[in-house]
Every structure is written in structure tokens, then in C-alpha cells.
Amino acid sequence: MPVYPQFADRIENIPGAVFEKFRDRMRARGDDLVKLHIGDTSLHPVFPLPLQKDFTERHADYNRYCNTFGVPAFVDALCDKLREDNRLEVKREQVLVTCGATNALSATVKALMNTGEKIMLLT
Questions:
Q1: d(Cα 97, Cα 78) in Å, to the nearest integer?
Q2: 76 CB-near residues (< 8 Å, 6+ apart)
Q3: Which pairs count as long-range contacts for 109-114, CB under 8 Å and 24+ apart, including other chains?
Q4: For the segment 66-97, what is each residue's pLDDT rounded down to a tens digit?
Q5: Alpha carbon distance 105, 55 (integer Å)
Q6: How far apart are CA 80 and CA 59, in angstroms?
Q7: pTM to 2 decimals?
Q8: Rounded to an integer, what distance in angstroms lies between the CA atom of residue 55 and that of residue 33?
Q9: pLDDT score for 79
Q10: Do residues 16 and 121 lie in contact, with contact meaning Cβ atoms separated by under 8 Å?
Q11: DSSP tag of 38
């Protein structure tokens, strides 16, 4: 059974998103909001795109970002792979999908290293 490292102090002090204080008021408004968070929009482009009609019918939200925690089917597949190939009992909430190796390494180091600690990287 793997021994998991202790997380850095900064992990215990991560604040909520800037919009957390407005969450209840936004929910009270229902669906009558234009969502502009993380550069995303709930509006489709006003100009035609060179996409096949059957694609846009099958993927109504093609212009939206995916869930920042990862596409559920992909996360499930990663969990299955880790269980079967690596014999690690992981839960979905323990998996973080990143945008490439640099993002993954940065998130990992920041989660495990406190300010002033040293790390050695072999290249």
C-alpha cells in the first residue's frame, strides 16, 4: 500500500473562488444569467462556423469548456487503469486531470512543497 506524502501548508489555506460570496444570489436568479466565468460563455457564436450540422446537434455545448475536474468518462477510465495496471485503489475525487506534463508537475510540486523547501530534479 503506497504511503501518501503530507500536503504543503498552502493547500490548507486555499481560498474559495472570487465568486463564492455571490453563489446564493446567483442560484436564486436561476438560469437567467449569462455565465462569463473562466472566459467561458453560455452563448453560441453569432457568426457561422465551418462545422457539420450533425456535429453541432450531437454536441450542443461544443463551444464550452469541459469540466475543470476532467471529463467524467475519462476520469473513470483513468481510475480503472490505475486499479488494474498499478493496483492503486483510487477514487474519482483523487484524480486531477491537467493540461499536459508542465501543468501536472507544477500542481504536484506546489501541492507538496512549502516555500523555502528544496527539491532536486534529475534531468
A1: 9
A2: 92
A3: 110/8, 110/10, 111/7, 111/8, 111/11, 112/5, 112/6, 112/7, 112/8, 113/8, 114/8, 114/9, 114/10
A4: 777 788 899 999 999 999 999 999 999 888 88
A5: 35
A6: 26
A7: 0.53
A8: 26
A9: 95
A10: no
A11: G
For the chain, residues with pLDDT lower than 50 are none
Which pLDDT value is given to residue 114?
Answer: 92
Question: In which element (H, E) is residue 112 found?
Answer: helix 101-112
- Alpha-carbon distance 57 to 61, whole Å? 9
Three cell numbers at 110? 506546489
pLDDT at 50: 80
| Owner of C-alpha cell 503530507 | 6
In the numeric block, the cell 481560498 is attached to 15
Please say whether the beta carbons of 7 and 110 come within 8 A: no
In this structure, which long-range contacts are made by residues 89-96, counting pairs with CB atoms below 8 Å and at least 24 apart in sequence?
95/70, 96/69, 96/70
Q: Which of 114, 88, 109 is nearest to 98 (CA)?
A: 109
Rg of the chain on CA atoms, in Å: 20
Which three cell numbers mark 118?
Answer: 528544496
